[in-house]
## 1
Amino acid sequence: MNAPAFHLVRPPVAVAPLLSVRNVSLEYRTEQRTVRATHDVSFDVFRGDRFVLLGPSGCGKSSLLKAVAGFIAPRAGSITMQEKIITKPGPDRVVVFQEFDQLPPWKTVLENVMFPLLASKRLDKVAARERAHHWIAKVGLAGFEYAHPHTLSGGMKQRVAIARALAMQPEVLLMDEPFAALDALTRRKMQEELSRLWEELRFTLVFVTHSIEEALVVGNRILLLSPHPGRVRAELNSHQFGLYSGGSAEFQAASSRIHGLLFDEDVVPVQHEDQPQREAV
Ligand SMILES: Nc1ncnc2c1ncn2[C@@H]1O[C@H](COP(=O)(O)OP(=O)(O)OP(=O)(O)O)[C@@H](O)[C@H]1O
């Protein structure tokens, strides 16, 4: 089989990134030891990107997402949104987690979606209710507004979490392995739903996964991270792949190339410059 096409692609020079991660090292400190989660990681996310952080378990993907969300501070480097340094969580960055228990169980679907709108004082009760109904319908849950989370399937709970996040109209939607706990069919369905929503709304997405296939299906750009502590292995353009590329020879070739880049010890980590070069897989 021929090697996959290899093109160098540069972002348009005039476009400023929405989110900029520069030389970020993340650490967890306890009394006994210090764990370095990522080392010197840099990347830019542009408006409308579906940017995927891909790497093996423990390489610091979730930690990077938490740092972008403002839950943890970098030990070194900086993270900026629209050129402002991120120092704490904010309504411009909303996270959807993998865990189904991210929804307070005592609240109905409607109350769950309304809650951050009210807590952040974005909307009054009437407007929040109206917006929540809109987003619940958008994710295909019309009719379940008054259901409680424990009566919903895993996929339905993730839809509620997505509706709750998108209702906030964040600048960036952050998703941490949101479909990893779902069965294969539901996972696929949710990838389709997410792609459908993105086609319609063109929001900016930062998506964490350790699945190469999911990265290719969901993302238009993929950052590959090395095993613990995570460093940038490569940055790839993957906009040519979508939901229905799965069985194609190009998809399989891209998938094995990424596998090689992730696990081949000989790969030299990418040196980031002000205007890094990116490859298409
Ligand atoms: N709260 C914490 N305290 C101490 N160490 C932590 C903490 N959270 C994560 N780590 C460590 O930081 C490293 C990166 O963890 P992180 O969860 O970010 O990786 P990941 O790539 O998201 O992994 P996975 O795919 O398994 O979720 C790991 O070595 C992990 O043990």
## 2
Amino acid sequence: MKITSAEFVMSNSNVTKAPKDRLPEYAFIGRSNVGKSSLINMLMERKDLAKISGKPGKTQLINHFKINDEWFLVDLPGYGYAQVSKKKRVIFQYFIENYFKEREQLVCTFVLIDSRHDPQKIDLDFMQFLGENQIPFCIVFTKADKLGSSKLNKQITSYKKKLLQYWESLPNTFLTSSSTGLGRKEFLEFIDGVNEDVAEDFK
Ligand SMILES: Nc1nc2c(ncn2[C@@H]2O[C@H](COP(=O)(O)OP(=O)(O)OP(=O)(O)O)[C@@H](O)[C@H]2O)c(=O)[nH]1
Ligand SMILES: [Mg+2]
């Protein structure tokens, strides 16, 4: 897929106010600081389409980007960031949960996992939530540049093994680095394929 346009449409904290266009939508979610916004910029080949920060908790709203006038990409706040006050955290969870439950256009969710980390309860719980709500998802391993190739392979293999303790089969997985562009082609090809598969439903 060639990216011909990528425009920021709106930010909000209420799914009912999200764009009304009937276009297939892809959401990016994961722990704070895992690299959601960076991955979006890497995919779109734009430096600061989505806002990035070294400090966790940068993205605080549901951000819609319209791509090629054909599909939406959604940057979401991270979960599991302890420094955000408890009250705020509850609100985050509520509007994120609502987004996933209510957004009919959502065709696939990308759950981002830092390649260096072992499986963590919060991510496994989130995947469980998606499964229970019949929301299709893929796993995206991020920051692949931070590990040497043998350590990286070992880490990914053991992550998948652990997942198979909870799931009968593995979802699609992607290995990415926003620093090197690793995984960009496969990722965009995947989205292209899903867009074609769902085209009938969006007519
Ligand atoms: N080396 C390396 N650093 C990365 C990569 N992706 C993200 N980072 C860095 O990780 C930090 C967090 O990146 P963000 O893209 O803001 O992460 P986020 O998941 O959107 O974070 P929140 O919006 O706070 O939830 C930044 O300092 C990025 O530069 C990557 O692939 N490789
Ligand atoms: Mg972000």
